Amino acid sequence: MQQETLRARPRVTSGSRPSKRLRREGQVTAVVYGKDLDSVPVVVDGRDLYAVLHTDAGLNALINLEVEGVAPVLTVPREIQRDPVRNDIMHVDFIKVSLDVEIEAEVGIDFTGVPIGVREEGGFVEMIETTVMISALPSEIPPSIVVDISDLVIGDTLKVEDLPIIGGVTYAADPDRPLATVVLPAIVEEEEEEVVEGEELAEGEEPAVTEEGAEEAGQAGGDDEG
């Protein structure tokens, strides 16, 4: 996996007000920490951060963080906080990693092919999970897991254990965890309207009037005459 470079400068202020001011200036607050490294609060340029997080590696990018006054640190981004409205990155943690020590990462699943259950049986694919947790060396983390679902029929479920074997990669999720299934569309049956008394009136037949109904009708007629 290609390594990206990102420059940072130490952050000397803290608190929500200075952080908002930095964001208005296009800066993003961050912190870098890890084994044998004290936590260092830093600030990075928002555009530069966007660039390194939008390579093929995505959020699992290997980033050489160059902090003023500190030796370059190889990191991966984690705990990314975003603005709930604009989705802009507000804060990010950079975790120090070593190329010879495995780490866990969340990787996207790339489903390919049209299942038999869709193209021949009228079903559709229900996506249950679109990512999976893996364990691998930082340089061996794949950009995505590609899996062909063309052979799935109605009722089939793709699980973690069905994902392809990739050298250097171990799936950290439960092997029985479902990822996608092929199902038939739900059919809603309309209930027939029930006829009052359970009977239909014959053509030309008038509904029967009870004695109580006749009395009420008579009283209503008397009121009209008055």
Labels describing this entry:
elongated, single chain, 2 domains, 6-stranded mixed barrel, Ribosomal Protein L25, Chain P, alpha+beta, 13 strands, RNA Polymerase Alpha Subunit, Chain A, domain 2, 226 residues, 4-stranded mixed sheet
Write the layout of secondary structure elements.
Blueprint: E1 3-10, H1 16-24, E2 27-34, E3 37-45, H2 46-52, E4 62-67, E5 73-82, E6 89-96, E7 103-112, H3 116-119, E8 124-127, E9 131-136, E10 144-148, E11 157-159, E12 170-171, E13 178-183, H4 211-225
Parallel strand pairs: 1-4, 2-6, 7-10
Antiparallel strand pairs: 1-3, 2-3, 4-5, 5-6, 7-9, 8-13, 9-12, 11-13
Characterization of this structure:
- The chain has 226 residues and is α+β, with helices and mostly antiparallel strands.
- It folds into 2 domains: 3-97, Ribosomal Protein L25, Chain P (Beta Barrel); 104-183, Ribosomal protein L25, C-terminal domain (RNA Polymerase Alpha Subunit, Chain A, domain 2).
- Helices cover 15% and strands 38% of the residues.
- It has helices spanning 16-24, 46-52, 116-119, 211-225, and strands at residues 3-10, 27-34, 37-45, 62-67, 73-82, 89-96, 103-112, 124-127, 131-136, 144-148, 157-159, 170-171, 178-183.
- A 6-stranded mixed beta barrel has the order 1-3-2-6-5-4. The protein has a 4-stranded mixed beta sheet with strand order 10-7-9-12, with no helix packed on it.
- The chain is elongated.
- The chain starts with a strand and ends with a helix.
- The relative contact order is 0.12.
